[in-house]
Known about the structure:
The chain is built from one helix and 30 strands. It is mainly β.
Amino acid sequence: MSRPHHQRSRRPVALAVTAVAAVLAGGLLIALPGAASAAPSGLADDFNGDGYRDLATGAPGAVAAGKAKAGAVVVNYGSSSGISTARHKTTSQSSSGVPGASETSDRFGTELAHGDLNRDGYGDLVVGTPQEDVGGDADGGSVTILWGGSSGLSGGTTISDPNPSGHDRFGQSLAVGDFTGDGKTDLAVGSTGTDVWIFKGGFTASGGAAAKLRFDAQIEAGAYPMGAVRLAAGDFDGDGTDDVVVGSSAGNFVYLGGSTGPTLQTEAGEGYAGALTVADFDRDGHDDLVVGTDFVSVLDDTARGGYVSVFHGGAAGVDTTRKTVFSQDTAGVPGTDESNDWFGASLAAGDVNGDKYPDLAVGADNESVGSTDGVGNVWVLRGGPSGLTGTGAQSFNQGTAGVPGANEQSDMFGDAVHLADHNKDGRADLSVGAAGENSDDGAVWVLRGSAGGITATGSVSFGASSVGIGKSGDDPMFGDVMSGS
């Protein structure tokens, strides 16, 4: 399923700097041609600094260095024409400068998050590899920062586990934000334990984090899926410091950020969340929390096929008394609420129509279309002055006119969703992962934002092989996760 992470960089965008080389000749100052260079954009997901937001996608089952399920990550770069197959870079633990080595069943790229961690103006990518064996610790897990630069991601730094004997699967959840309010980007990391670690900015390529904080969450420790399975970040109380949400089998707990570390504020939604995401949908200055409940308890009569709950932010943080629920039974939302649809399995927020209000993408990767099971579907709900609404909601699958491909069993279209403006037209584009496409090879679709919302016109789609990921008898599952979803 998708693992949403809300990232925000509060560091001011780097000022443009022009470097002029000159020589003195005959009393005249002459500028040498080609000497000017622009500063990087400062966007948290612009890994090459060219001003366009990029798309990072995991293929955790990919073969790397001949090792089955070693895992890889693909970045498709944004441009004036949006995302394409041609502009991409594929990275594994066998890539030059990346710590570690590709090993069987590491599943590098199981979790992704992004932000400018070293404050150089380039977005960096954080990669969680929770099934990596560390020394003699089976599934101890690891976290790697891949550094952005003018040529895109290059090299990396390991964030060491401070408590390897206390848990497994370090890096099974990630979130990026300023959790301590010092203006620097921090990294939150979860595992199968109750301990969640905040690694403080600023980061360096040689030394990692400046410091680290531990807080014990109100969750259950144990074998996966115990521990902090989901992490999300957002400023719910509007104080300028990011707060962190810990999703677990015991519920979803909101911790308010502060200089000494996060403190518990409330629980929002009971039980296991398939996805979390955060945005200020009504633009009241307080972020709102969205919880996806894709697997519905037999005792839960909210909706049979899954639902999403929007908890509004306020002066005290997340206000659990102000909750709005959406499902396929909600007025205006296309489709029919059916058991095991998994509505809410993936979530992402972004402004698709340029009205300045964030909208919400919702994936249901087990949705049936006609008589075909497990096809998958994605909806886009509109934001506005009153928050999210089902009115005018859009629905997409591979049978939608203009969307490449065809609906097939177990494609899992909507396994991951992502909203970001990749061509700088002021409207977020919808990216959709389908890890089950072509017998778990996986594929990605990108649909454009427009004044009328998401449009299938001009959609692009690309599979694992087109970005250099071979199947080799294994299941790459390209599109299983996207950074920022």
